[in-house]
Amino acid sequence: MEIKRLTGGLSVSEQILPADLKAIKDAGFRAIICNRPDGEGVDQPTFEEISKVAQKAGIETSYLPIVSGKVLDEDAGAFDAALTELPGPVLAYCRTGTRSATLWSLSQAGQRSTADILAATKAAGYDMGGVVRRIVNGGKTPTDTGDASFEVVIVGAGAGGIAVAASLKARKPGLEVAIIDPADVHYYQPGWTMGGGGIFEPQETSRTMGSLIPKGVHWVKSAVAAFEPKNNAVILDGCRVVKYKRLIVCPGLKLDWHKVEGLVETLGQNGVTSNYRYDLAPYTWELVSGMKGGRAIFTQPPMPIKCAGAPQKAMYLSGDAWHRRGVLKNIDIQFNNAGGALFGVKDYVPALMEYVKKYDAKLNFFHNLVAVDGPARKAWFDVSKPDTPVERVEMDFDMMHVCPPQTAPNFIRVSPLADAAGWVEVDQATLRHKTYDNIWSLGDVMNAPNAKTTAAARIQAPVVAENVVADMRGGSPVAQYNGYGSCPLTVERGKIVLAEFGYGGTLLPSFPTAIIDGTKPTRAAWFLKEKMLPPVYWKGMLKGREWMVKPEKVTVS
């Protein structure tokens, strides 16, 4: 007998025997629900046999038999009622535990999010893919059969989603494409660092979503609840179903602010800010502009994160502002990085270290932010140095710029598309899913080992578009992604170290060294970041104009 926990009040298991009741009692269970009809197997004890022994042990019992594969809507209601009436914790069982897990999943629909239900059952080893539509539909069997259908469905209307839609329409203008995204506003997120440095105004980094959806592309303004890749279906909130011939998944990632205790309550006040939020970048600049002395902490969580250089960009621009105002000598800059290196590609580190020295910043590696008390101006970090026990340290601050922990969105992590770490599993060259050959992914959500940046998505979009069109024509992938990513490291106002690299840290500069030497701070790179890249984004990338991003062809060995 293997007991699998779903919640603090409910666990499920395979068929139990009378002899198991002592161990069940010792484990703390106060009630049992049997979901297996008597007589299903020749070696199966009857419910009455189980019940007699359970009652002697002081365990209450309930008999709710379910025929395998036939869990009715009313059965889920009866299961929920039993959980309410019985003393907990409860153990429910059937032949394998699947029926019990299914009953719980349906009974919780409407009470918990679909992602939370799927995460709990997945962790226990049960696949609820067969009833996901019912879960999304509040635990009831859907009756609506009016599903929408498109040749290509794109999940996510961020940089990757709109760019790949535009690239597809440029190649096949008559293609029926739909983008699914509930957001009203689209953000140019690379501009937020500049906002936090007092260079860009917030409104320069946002546009209405409707103004950016490519002409001829259908916009399904809804959130995704789940995927049914075996049925070529995307399930939306409200249990609407969108069918596809080919699917492209690029919803970005999730900023997990709640993972740091006390952070959500103090963001935007008490000196705690983040350039990772549109509305907080101006507060960063407000704090920097007003600071005359004290301690400023800049944090970086464990990888992966979007734009791995952004946490230190905030530090450099802040240090530069304090240097220009003549107050830098009064400010204690601390860079607390959960990782063990300043930057993942060593070629750029010497130039960055010059600025670390210029701003007299202290680098604290293996320091991961775990809690913050804004009113008290205190933060706690778990220090996890190699071969050393984890130590929790407390630090006071006057200002703290936080980069939040980041994960794949919940509906991705619990889906059949995800790898063990929760990211969409793709071939790192073709960006095609490793299991479902009519699915592709790009942007921050997929698991290729590249930097999660807008510049990466700009290269990935035409690669995916080329390969989707090739698949439509019955061919093999024709384009491959080399892992390109770019991180313009704003080391001071007017100069940038333009890091450009691919898989394995290979340097992939876009310009000759005579124009921009990416390993050194240059004004040319600053001009590119401040003046050139925003219009390239709005007027090029999102319009299907693939400037300087011609896909690399697949090489045949």
UniProtKB/TrEMBL annotation:
The family database entries (InterPro entries) matched by this protein are listed as: BLH_phosphatase-like, FAD/NAD-bd_sf, FAD/NAD-binding_dom, Prot-tyrosine_phosphatase-like, Sulphide_quinone_reductase
Q: Name one GO molecular function term.
A: hydrolase activity
Highest taxon above the source species: Bacteria
Keyword flag Transit peptide: yes
* The FAD/NAD(P)-binding domain, residue ranges: 151-265
This protein's cofactor list reads:
FAD
Where the record annotates domain Beta-lactamase hydrolase-like protein phosphatase-like, the positions are 3-110
Choose any GO biological process term that the UniProt entry carries and state it: sulfide oxidation, using sulfide:quinone oxidoreductase
**Which terms are listed as keywords in the entry?**
FAD, Flavoprotein, Oxidoreductase, Quinone, Transit peptide
Please give the NCBIfam families that the UniProt record associates with this protein.
TIGR01244 family sulfur transferase (TIGR01244)
What is this protein's record name?
TIGR01244 family phosphatase
